[in-house]
Structure of VOC family protein:
Amino acid sequence: MTTTLTPSLMFIGKASEAIELYTSIFDDAELVRIDRYDASNPEMEGQIMQAELRVHNQSLLFTDSPDVHSFTFTPSISFFVRCESTEEVDRIFAALSECGKVMMPLDAYPFSERFGWCNDRFGVSWQVSLN
């Protein structure tokens, strides 16, 4: 068995929506597996116990929490997406920032010709940059 390091994202009833959004944005996104709560847990039935999504050879784990917590996502941890074209940067940033919060608008910065930083509608933080 090989040791791995995989980001895990916890949602409150929105994991399926997040997976749908991310698979619509990233061309090579692949849902590897999905395990849902069954009738033995009626309050959570149908929600995601754990799912694995692979995007650009990076696995991400998703779960719906049965409990509401006093914490959520923070922009101090973010996904950094390096894109091959300005058009790709613009497309991905527009999709991720829709109904979210833009923290650094798409622009030229000293470290990148085209860069933007946002929280998506779920609060997950994304930095999108021209490679």
